[in-house]
Design brief:
The protein is α/β, with parallel strands linked by helices. About 50% of the residues lie in helices and about 20% in strands. It folds into three domains: about 120 residues, no CATH class; about 325 residues, no CATH class; about 170 residues, Nucleotide cyclase, GGDEF domain (Alpha-Beta Plaits, 2-Layer Sandwich), CATH 3.30.70.1230. The chain has 27 helices and 24 strands. Strands 16, 17, 18, 19, 20, 21, 22, 23 and 24 form a nine-stranded mixed beta sheet that branches. Strands 1, 2, 3, 4, 5, 10 and 11 form a seven-stranded mixed beta sheet that branches. Strands 6-9 form a two-stranded antiparallel sheet. The longest helix is centred in the middle third of the chain and has 34 residues. The relative contact order is 0.08.
Length: about 750
């Protein structure tokens, strides 16, 4: 396939993946909890319309009015005073978000009912209760459940005085509130509190809306309202009739929108003709709508309940109440701090200060959204899936056309542009575009697939090179060269690596004593034992001369795993030679191992017509010198401090600083004993601690203490050649100006 064809295929698959994943039910909830949350946070709080005011029933008002901090126990005469004050101030609608469930004394209810009736603009709250009925068949067997919503209206005398009685059901904390019901299908498609309040607020525009509907459908909606019925039932029936007209005639919304095209304005507080598109948005919208929150609690203008009953009740420093003429006022429980009432709900802004939004503030928010005709609007399904297809195709095709690093950068750029576009659309028009699937799933998938595809292509190229040069160069070196695009017989590459050098004891005498055929079989078995651990740990067999082997682990980058793999290979060689299957090899060819790390030059070394690919550098010679020190110390595996740096999980014994034969700089040498999880590792702990004490005394020139400890250790471990080595040096008594470094004069 060509690169363009691969890009086309990846784009199509990425787009289809987004469509399939987004259709899962769980994804919508995740998108709402993450994507919508992020959009609100990027946008931040925004200014609510001035035509909405909340009157808060709070602890301060209870204290000032001398009432209990339980609003349900407040006398209803207090609410009657508030309704009279709000009506006198010219409020367009008064929504009492208080459930007056039970009737009280005739004096209290009559006084409040009179105030509500005289105001002629009050919406009362009704409670909805969910009822679950268990169903059984004729045989008495359980068949399922039926869930119904029961509407519990306020006291009859109060309900009959109000212009509307409406519920406002919301989920219970801790479920986050993101939506609200405009019309409740479970209770006969009743309008909810914000809808009833908006219809009262925009009542002056109602006759023109009804007239236009009659012109378009020849069906007069809302007969009770048209006939002058101002009762609660009349307003609710009129709202239901208008809603039914839009549901029955889906084309009505488009026709009215064209008719209102000259006056489609959504600013709050507009004139009568500007409220027509607001009512159109109210009745033509879905039953459930997303809340376009304005911010944390009391972002909407909030006035304490007590302040409206008299200036003397205001808080210190509180300004005079705003002009309420023509404004919608929502009255309910709301606190500045954590409320004692349970009427609070977790919202997207709750995380900012830990405070939840009260029910009355959510009702006021829903009303303000309807008044602005600006709810949070998700994309319709066709546009939603089309966007995911287009985005997936663009992201997948683009990142596949580019190489790995540019593809990642392009992906980051695309994500930034998409997120910025979503933020702008959400901030200005409340349009909610998906974020989780495009940015959290589609783009990462496209990047992963593109990078993986690039890797497979490159790997295929490496295999082609490997097939041509694999017989001449180590496989891992071929891969490295293919990736770095280096070639040429005299080329070299500076790398970081670890060298492992081995040598067999008394090979010269063995080769002299054994027939060549037997020696060849023995050496084949010996090298198989050495080579396999190196191969298993991704090492390179660089040189094999007689009984000696040099293995290399190298990389252009300083990869920490290189030293770990070299050490593991050394342990595996030691264990393999000690295994019963290789007892004969171990008996004949006891092996010394040395390891050192540093910079090496890997490349073609030679002249004229003969070149060999090999490692050149000090670490090659130093690893050989370290390997040779096993002869003097009676050890098997020695390694430098450079090899141990950054590698943990090993049990080693530091043997001190040495200047090796032919060298000028000291090297710290350690004996590799095994790993910390070896069964016998714990038994060595005490011995190693005492040895470290002796070594510290030795380095400090305290020969007496060092010799004493070394002697005591030798009595327990007479086979330890390291102890014999240091006891011999203690007897030599180095000069007083000795710097603690042992100089090795022989290899």
């Amino acid at each position: 396939m060509t690169r363009q064809a691969k890009a086309l295929l990846l784009g199509i698959l990425t787009g289809l993946f987004g469509v399939v994943v987004s259709s899962l039910p769980v994804m919508h909830a995740l998108e709402e909890n993450t994507g919508l949350d992020l959009l609100f946070r990027l946008r931040g709080p925004r200014t609510p319309p001035e035509d909405v005011v909340v009157v808060s029933i709070d602890r301060h008002s209870a204290q000032v009015l001398g009432l209990p901090n339980e609003p349900a126990k407040w006398p209803r005469s207090i609410h009657a005073q508030l309704v009279n004050r709000l009506a006198a101030a010219g409020a367009s609608v008064i929504a009492l978000d208080i459930f007056f469930r039970e009737a009280r004394g005739p004096g209290e209810d009559r006084l409040l009912a009179q105030a509500i009736r005289e105001a002629n603009r009050v919406v009362l709250f009704a409670y909805t209760r969910k009822e679950i009925t268990r169903l059984f068949d004729a045989a008495g067997d359980y068949t399922g459940e039926m869930i119904t919503q029961q509407l519990l209206p306020p006291a009859e005398e109060l309900a009959s005085a109000a212009r509307a009685v409406a519920p406002f059901p919301l989920p219970v904390y801790p479920v986050r509130v993101s939506q609200y019901w405009a019309f409740t299908s479970g209770t006969g498609n009743l309008p909810t509190e914000p809808v009833a309040a908006l219809q009262l607020h925009a009542e002056a525009a109602l006759p023109e809306l009804q007239a236009r509907i009659v012109d378009l459908t020849l069906t007069p909606p809302g007969k009770p309202a048209a006939s002058g019925d101002q009762t609660e039932a009349g307003l609710v029936h009129m709202i239901q009739a208008l809603r039914a007209a839009f549901v029955t005639h889906p084309e009505l919304a488009s026709a009215l929108r064209d008719a209102f095209s000259s006056s489609l304005k959504t600013r709050p507080g507009a004139q009568q003709h500007d409220l027509l598109p607001v009512l159109l948005g109210l009745y033509a919208g879905p039953d459930s709508r997303y809340l376009n929150f304005y911010g944390p609690p009391q972002t909407i203008t909030t006035i304490p309940y007590a302040s409206l009953l008299g200036p003397a009740n205001a808080r210190p420093g509180e300004t005079a109440p705003p002009d309420l003429h023509g404004k919608a006022v929502f009255v309910g429980y709301s606190e500045r701090l954590h409320p004692e009432q349970l009427d609070e709900f977790y919202t997207v802004f709750s995380q900012d200060n830990g405070l939840n939004l009260s029910g009355v503030e959510i009702a006021a928010t829903a009303f303000a959204n309807l008044l602005e005709n600006l709810p949070v609007t998700p994309l319709p399904l066709p546009a939603f899936y089309g966007l995911l297809l287009a985005w997936g195709f663009l992201a997948g095709a683009l990142v596949r056309l580019l190489s790995a690093v540019p593809a990642v950068l392009a992906g980051i750029g695309l994500a930034g542009l998409y997120l910025g576009g979503c933020h702008v659309l959400f901030s200005h028009s409340a349009l909610w575009l998906p974020l989780l699937v495009p940015l959290g799933l589609q783009l990462p998938l496209a990047l992963f697939a593109a990078v993986l595809w690039h890797y497979l292509d490159v790997n295929r190229e490496r295999k082609t090179i490997r097939s041509a040069f694999g017989l001449y160069l180590p496989p891992l070196v071929v891969d490295e060269l293919a990736g770095q695009r280096t070639a040429g017989r005299s080329s070299g590459q500076l790398m970081h690596g670890t060298c492992l050098s081995t040598d067999a004891y008394e090979y010269t005498q063995l080769s002299e004593a054994m027939p060549p055929a037997e020696l060849g079989e023995l050496m084949n078995a010996y090298y198989e034992t050495l080579f396999q651990p190196v191969r298993n740990n991704n090492g390179i067999i660089s040189d094999v001369i007689g009984d000696a082997m040099l293995a290399i682990w190298a990389s252009v980058n300083r990869e920490p795993g290189i030293k770990r793999r070299a050490i593991q290979a050394a342990l595996e060689i030691s264990n393999a030679l000690a295994a019963p299957a290789h007892a004969a090899v171990q008996h004949c060819l006891k092996t010394r191992i040395g390891l050192h790390s540093g910079e090496i030059l890997l490349g073609s070394i030679g002249a004229v017509d003969h070149y060999e690919y090999r490692a050149v550098g000090d670490i090659v010679n130093t690893s050989t010198r370290i390997q040779g020190m096993n002869t003097h110390l009676g050890t098997q595996i020695l390694l430098s401090g450079e090899v141990l740096a950054g590698v943990d999980g090993l049990q080693t014994r530091e043997l001190g600083s040495f200047i090796l034969s032919g060298k000028s700089r000291p090297v710290v040498i350690h004996e590799l004993l095994g790993t910390e999880d070896d069964p016998i590792a714990a038994s060595r702990a005490g011995y190693l601690t005492r040895f470290a004490e002796a070594l510290a005394a030795f380095r400090g020139g305290d020969w007496h203490t060092a010799r004493s400890i070394f002697t005591a250790l030798q009595m327990e471990h007479d086979h330890d050649g390291v102890l014999r080595f240091f006891l011999a040096h203690c007897r030599m008594q180095p000069p007083p100006d000795w710097d603690g470094v042992i100089r090795m004069e022989i290899k």
